[in-house]
Amino acid sequence: MRKTKLLNDAYGRLYGFFGPQKWWPGDTPFEVIVGAILTQNTNWKNVERAIANLKRDGLLSAKKLSEISPARLANLIRPAGYFRVKTKRLKNFLNFFCNDYGGRIAGMKSEAADAMREKLLSVNGIGPETADSILLYALEKPVFVIDAYTKRILSRHYL
């Protein structure tokens, strides 16, 4: 409980001083989610190219991505690397998103962070860092994305 309070206090101070950073690029929460899935094991420049391909073809929506073939999706996201694996991961997420939330971000946003995190982690291909990125940057939930950098910072402050 003490660590939770310390983390919340640190978050509050940082947010109060710096304000919203709009760190994750993306025009919509859905684009942020697609980017979070595509950025696994690659750099952001490659993801930008893949997202640009989806935008160019007018496919950056849950409905349209759900309808295209895995082969076409794989070709479009090829610049992000591991395109066959990422195609499966995107299709898994789209199935979850469309079936459980009707393809609506508002439904996901209305859920508590802990419950939403568990649901995201149940989707094959969504791990802890991706789930936390979706929660924070797309769904605007007050969570920390726990990655190597976060661990380093928190350990240096004995948290």
Structure commentary:
The protein has 159 residues and is mainly α. Helices cover 67% and strands 0% of the residues. The longest helix has 19 residues, at 83-101.
Give me the secondary-structure category. mainly alpha
Question: Averaging pLDDT over every residue, what do you get?
Answer: 93
Radius of gyration: 16 Å
Q: Number of helical runs?
A: 10
What does the main sheet amount to? none
Number of strands: 0
Helix content: 55-70%
Low-confidence stretches: none
- The separation of the N and C termini measures 12 Å
Topology (elements, then pairings):
Layout lengths: L1 H17 L10 H10 L5 H13 L5 H6 L2 H8 L5 H19 L3 H5 L3 H9 L6 H11 L9 H9 L3
Helix pairs in contact: 2-3, 2-9, 5-6, 8-9
Q: What distinguishing features does this structure have?
A:
10 helices; 159 residues; globular; mainly alpha
Summarize the model shown:
The protein is 67% helix and 0% strand.
